[in-house]
TrEMBL record:
Residues 57-236, 453-625 form the VWFA domain. The keyword Transmembrane does not apply. GO terms for molecular function: calcium ion binding. Residues 1-23 form the signal peptide. It holds the Pfam family VWA. InterPro entries: ECM_Assembly_Org, EGF, EGF-like_Ca-bd_dom, EGF-type_Asp/Asn_hydroxyl_site, Growth_fac_rcpt_cys_sf, Matrilin_CC_sf, Matrilin_CC_trimer, VWF_A. Its main location: secreted. One of its GO terms (cellular component) is extracellular region. Keywords: Coiled coil, Disulfide bond, EGF-like domain, Glycoprotein, Repeat, Secreted, Signal. This is Matrilin 2. Gene3D superfamilies: 1.20.5.30, Laminin, von Willebrand factor, type A domain. It is found in: Secreted.
Length: 672
């Protein structure tokens, strides 16, 4: 008995020693976190990454406001680099992007920029503190609209790669975050919210994903942010597949993500509100319904139906024809027509059904074909009368028709051309002229002597609003009306921008003012962010290229319209455009920033910068701008020598043709 007790104590002591050894080995293999220093050098000890991480699209969103001291800013960098040690970074592994924000959003690198951990670490070290405001909502908007797009390196949604955004902030945002954060989560972005110091916990919960216990963290100061490394190691290393360790109850597909999971449905199905079960978008398309005629989808299944004139049989799948006219003596004098539930009597052409619903009386006096009408006819109560199609009028004989061309029958007063319409006429002008206010006379456009390549750059951001966007289109068309639009005259192109830039039409696309104005009226309002710098870049690099219709030795002019602050830098591309010879007119309305307008506009400002307090006063700056463009109109003397030579050759050719036609040239040759 005593020997058995001693043996059991020895076994227990040995097992305890074995566990202690294993724990010590595990501790020695754990990656050692990097410690922040006062300078920007981060010594990293090479360690074996113990993670078996799943691939992620991971974007850091870092608060770089002025409330963060320089030493604390370095601690945030340290935290990011230590967190990277648990990620396997590569093109087919985890992709990492980073942006920091203050009063504006500054992208540091996108998901497609770097493919190695060392490159990412170096970029983090080189970040510089912005030290401005705290526009957290603006940063989340950029993250959703730009950072997680395939254009910037995010992988397609159908690959089920988790999209992770880690937001680090130390203060209250200066804009709203609830609505845009909810939109980002609904778009499939899993958000971790990390607050430091006196951050409002309700704000963090409004930003972070559910459950908040996994996605929302608050530490007292930046020195304690390192304590979150071990927390995120278990989340990001993917040590366990959440779909394998929880009873997810997903009917079709379970998709794991760090610290969570979500249910998805197979193609052709949609997820029900319970977030677990799936319903076919088209049940009839995915089941063997066996319906003879029609399969109709229901909220929870389907049912078979029959075409009109048929009824469903007892098997609820096949159909039998219902012909009520064959069931008995319907009593119709002319025709019996079966309808789904009964029958109706109809009459032959030229007859009308009587009140008894069965017999017919002749009322169409045109039915016998003896009316003699040239085009159309109509039966009245007492007779048959002739009519003419649109564009014709009935002659006095009451039967034949003659063409109705008001331009030939009235004194229209059109100076150039009269064009008949269905019921009236309109005046038009020859090419190079525009219709005057009286609707009859023609005049040269205000800038008829100038030739230029003009590109409009129009703000289509959501702050504008659909109604004001229509006013902007009227403004563009007003400018177009003042120009000499033709193949040899002024050419016009137009860009619209918000978060992205869209070419509505190029310089070489249209050669008449009417076509340009129609294209402007067809423009669809974009209504998102305001990336004016990207629009200026596109204008500079592409809009005046020969590929898009730009011409050699023709003055290049751009009119840039904006109603608010740009979300990116405008100075660099505005300067490049102006240095390349492009004259830029800057038009601002409402909340447009004066400094931005000055950076955009050519010098001097008093000739190229225009501002209106609201859209109702746009007419004033439109009038001033048209006057300035016409005053600064380029001269025909700028035409290059080769174009003058071609014009001279064409003139000589036309004169020679004329001489040949009059036999003068032949006579001269004969005399010689």
């Amino acid at each position: 008995m005593l020997s058995s007790f001693i043996t059991m104590r020895c076994l227990a002591l040995g097992l305890f020693c074995l566990l202690c050894c294993n724990a010590a080995q595990t501790y020695r293999r754990r990656p050692r976190p990097i410690t922040a220093r006062s300078n920007t050098t981060f010594p990293i000890k090479a360690v074996e990454n113990p993670c078996k991480a799943i691939p992620l699209d991971f974007v850091f969103v870092i608060d770089s406001s002025r409330s963060i001291r320089p030493n604390d800013y370095e601690k945030v960098k340290t935290f990011i680099i230590n967190l990277l040690q648990f990620l396997k970074i590569g093109y087919n592994a985890t992709r990492v992007g980073l942006l920091q924000y203050g009063s504006v959003v500054q992208p540091e690198f996108s998901l497609s920029t770097y493919t190695t951990k060392s490159e990412v670490e170096k970029a983090v070290r080189n970040m510089e503190h912005l030290a401005t405001g705290t526009m957290t909502g603006l940063a989340i908007q950029y993250t959703m609209d730009t950072a997680f797009t395939e254009e910037h390196g995010a992988r397609p949604m159908n690959l089920h790669i988790p999209r992770i955004a880690m937001i680090v902030t130390d203060g209250r945002p200066q804009d709203t975050v609830e609505e845009i954060a909810a939109q980002a989560r609904q778009a499939g972005i899993q958000i971790f919210a990390i607050g430091v110091g006196r951050v409002d916990m309700n704000t963090l919960r409004a930003i972070g994903s559910e459950p908040h216990s996994e996605h929302v963290h608050l530490v007292a100061n930046f020195s304690q942010i390192e304590t979150l490394i071990s927390v995120f190691q278990s989340k990001l290393c993917g040590g366990s597949d959440m779909c394998e360790v929880v009873d997810h109850q997903c009917q079709h597909i379970c998709v794991s993500s760090p610290a969570s999971y979500r249910c998805k449905c197979r193609e052709g199905y949609i997820l029900n509100p319970d977030g677990k079960t799936c319903t076919a978008e088209d049940t009839c398309a995915v089941v063997d319904h066996g319906c003879e005629h029609i399969c109709a989808n229901l909220p929870r299944g389907y049912e078979c139906r029959c075409r009109p004139g048929y009824q469903l049989t007892i098997d609820l799948k096949t159909c039998n024809r219902i012909d009520h006219c064959d069931l008995g003596n319907h009593g119709c004098e002319h025709n019996c027509v079966t309808v789904p539930e009964s029958y109706i009597c109809t009459c032959k052409r030229g007859y009308v059904l009587n009140l008894d619903g069965k017999t017919c009386s002749k009322i169409d006096h045109c039915a016998d074909g003896t009316h003699g009408c040239e085009q159309e006819f109509m039966s009245t109560e007492d007779s048959c009368v002739c009519k003419c199609r649109k564009g014709y009028t009935l002659r006095p004989d009451g039967k034949t028709c003659q063409s109705l061309d008001l331009c030939q029958t009235v004194h229209h007063g059109c100076e150039h051309q009269c064009v008949s319409t269905n019921d009236s006429y309109i005046c038009r002008c020859f090419e190079g002229f525009m219709l005057a206010e009286d609707g009859k006379s023609c005049k040269k456009p205000e800038c008829s002597e100038g030739v230029m390549d003009l590109v409009f750059v129009i703000d289509g951001s959501k702050s504008l609003g659909p109604n004001n966007f229509e006013l902007v289109k009227q403004f563009v068309n007003s400018i177009v009306d003042s120009l000499d639009i033709s193949k040899m005259g002024t050419h016009v192109g137009l860009l619209q921008y918000s978060t992205k830039v869209r070419t509505e039409f190029t310089l070489g696309q249209y050669s008449t003012a009417q076509h340009i104005k129609s294209a402007v009226n067809r423009m669809q309002y974009m209504g998102r962010g305001s990336m004016t710098g990207s629009a200026l870049r596109h204008m500079f690099e592409s809009s005046f290229s020969t590929k898009e219709g730009g011409r050699f030795n023709i003055p290049r002019v751009s009119i840039v319209f904006t109603d608010g602050r740009s979300q990116d830098d405008v100075s660099e591309w505005a300067t490049k455009a102006k240095n390349s010879g492009i004259t830029i007119y800057a038009l601002g309305v409402g909340k447009a920033i004066e400094q931005e307008l000055r950076e955009i506009a050519s010098e001097p400002d008093e000739k190229h910068l225009y501002y209106a307090e609201d859209f109702e006063k746009m007419a004033e700056i439109t009038k001033k701008l048209k006057s300035r463009i016409c005053a600064d109109k380029p001269s025909d003397e700028n035409m290059c020598q080769c174009e003058n030579m071609i014009m001279f050759q064409n003139q000589v050719t036309e004169k020679l043709k004329s001489l040949v036609q009059n036999n003068i040239l032949l006579c001269s040759l004969h005399s010689y």
